[in-house]
């Protein structure tokens, strides 16, 4: 792995420049995605359409598309001589990243109950993004991120870490509520209740957005900010679409419940 990377980049400065460029490109992609999502919902789940390619089993799709976000970074740690791996702030930030994607790639897909197939286009784009972002986040943290002494006690790191943990727990709990909406043998959609769903329709999305916003605050890099920004753009639109769908589908849907931000929006 290290030999391959040295072949691609002649110097550390060159690779760091490329990582920065990839971050800015991710933000541009987020803005382009925002414009597209103004006119089209993300084609998955209840919004699935065959015009976006042949269907892929939802469990298979989730497992394969998320796996690179875990395996690509893991290979960078094991075989690419990570010079920052013994630095505490870097270790903790890498731990946050791997904690999320271990659950998302190796546990979450096998907990899915039912679920509509994923169109191939959505599956392929998610697969490519996980490779892209996995390399970007972990290569920077394991090789280049340089934090001042005592950074783990800095208010930004402490606040960001707490937000990451809050978001991660919210995301896990919200996914648990969604999985258990139907009893065995039941089909169709139901109104989610409990937890943060009492306040917003997109509780699972809000959790993940808070998670990566906290990660970006703790990491203080353009790379982590780009990821948090991209996550916000995509998941906020999903939350709004879900909220509108629930209001149209269920006459008794709680009118006080917001789309994404409790009591606000």
Task: Provide key terms for this protein.
265 residues, mainly alpha, two-stranded antiparallel ribbon, 9 helices, 2 strands
**What's the β-strand tally?**
2
How would you state the average pLDDT, rounded? 90
The major pleated sheet works out as: 2 strands, antiparallel
Q: Classify the secondary structure makeup into a structural class.
A: mainly alpha
Low-confidence stretches: none
Rg from C-alpha positions?
A: 19 Å
Q: What is the rounded distance between the termini?
A: 46 Å
How many independent structural domains? 1
- The neighbouring-strand order within the major sheet is 1-2
Overall 3D shape: globular
Helix content: 55-70%
Strand share of the residues? under 5%
**Number of helical stretches of at least 4 residues:** 9
N-to-C order of helices and strands: HHEHHHEHHHH
Subcellular location: Endoplasmic reticulum membrane; Microsome membrane
Protein name: 3-oxo-5alpha-steroid 4-dehydrogenase (NADP(+))
EC number: 1.3.1.22
Pfam families: Steroid_dh
């Amino acid at each position: 792995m290290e030999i391959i990377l040295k072949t691609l980049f002649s110097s550390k400065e060159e690779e760091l420049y490329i990582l920065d460029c990839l971050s800015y490109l991710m933000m541009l992609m987020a803005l382009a995605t925002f414009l597209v999502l103004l006119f089209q919902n993300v084609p998955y789940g209840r919004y699935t359409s065959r015009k976006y390619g042949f269907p892929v089993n939802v469990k298979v799709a989730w497992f394969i598309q998320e796996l690179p976000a875990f395996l690509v970074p893991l290979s960078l740690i094991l075989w690419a001589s990570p010079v920052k791996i013994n630095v505490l702030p870097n270790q903790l930030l890498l731990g946050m990243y791997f904690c999320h994607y271990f659950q998302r790639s190796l546990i979450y897909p096998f907990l899915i109950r039912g679920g509509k197939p994923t169109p191939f286009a959505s599956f392929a784009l998610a697969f490519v993004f996980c490779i892209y972002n996995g390399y970007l986040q972990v290569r920077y943290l394991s090789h280049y991120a340089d934090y001042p002494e005592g950074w783990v006690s800095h208010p930004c790191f402490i606040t960001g870490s707490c937000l990451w943990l809050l978001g991660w727990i919210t995301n896990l709990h919200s996914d648990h509520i969604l999985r258990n909406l139907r009893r065995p043998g039941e089909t169709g959609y139901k109104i989610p209740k409990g937890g943060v769903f009492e306040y917003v329709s997109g509780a699972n999305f809000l959790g993940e957005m808070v998670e990566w916003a906290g990660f970006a605050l703790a990491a203080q890099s353009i790379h982590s900010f780009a990821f948090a920004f991209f996550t916000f753009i995509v998941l906020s639109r999903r939350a709004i679409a879900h909220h509108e769908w629930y209001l149209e589908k269920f006459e008794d849907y709680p009118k006080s419940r917001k789309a994404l931000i409790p009591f606000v929006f």
